[in-house]
Write a structure and sequence with these properties.
6-stranded antiparallel β-sheet; 160 residues; globular
Length: 160
């Protein structure tokens, strides 16, 4: 894990903090990196509800990479860049696994009226990610999948 960077922003007199991490495509490393990101965000006074939401989003996104991009192969690499600004939290997840065509369209799911046997396979995770983020961007270029998730912050974060 690398040290966070503090970079002055030109347009304003605030700061951008960055946490850059790299893990193998192993469930235990996903769990460890989630804990590290959570502690880092808490140390910079990000609202607890936002930290909890991001932990859910990151768990879903990283588990998707482990399961679908690397098919549970333990030698895959996942790069994570968390960027924190006073009004925005952004996470970039990059992998070199199987090509991903991008997040599926939103699916309306009335789970209360389905029986267990009728529940559709998949799609719940992306609906969760959509509901807890403000912007989702995806690109596949240079044999890499890049998913960027942005969450707007209501309360300024980043205590000095």
């Amino acid at each position: 894990m690398t040290e966070p960077e503090k970079t002055p922003l030109r347009a304003s007199h605030s700061y951008e903090l960055r946490l850059q991490l790299a893990i193998k495509s192993v469930q235990s490393e996903v769990s460890n990196v989630l804990c590290a990101i959570t502690k880092w965000l808490e140390s910079h006074k990000v609202e607890p509800a936002t930290v909890c939401d991001l932990e859910l989003v990151m768990a879903e996104a990283l588990n998707n990479v482990v399961e679908h991009a690397y098919l549970y192969a333990e030698d895959g690499e996942i790069d994570i860049l968390v960027t924190l600004r006073p009004a925005e939290l952004k996470v970039l997840i990059t992998d070199s696994g199987r090509k991903f065509d991008g997040p599926p369209e939103f699916r309306e799911m009335d789970v209360e009226n389905f029986s267990f046997e009728e529940l559709p396979e998949g799609g719940f995770g992306w609906n969760l990610i959509r509901s807890l983020t403000d912007v989702i961007e995806f690109e596949h270029a240079d044999k890499k999948n890049r998913l960027t998730l942005t969450r707007n912050l209501q309360d300024p974060a980043m205590a000095e």
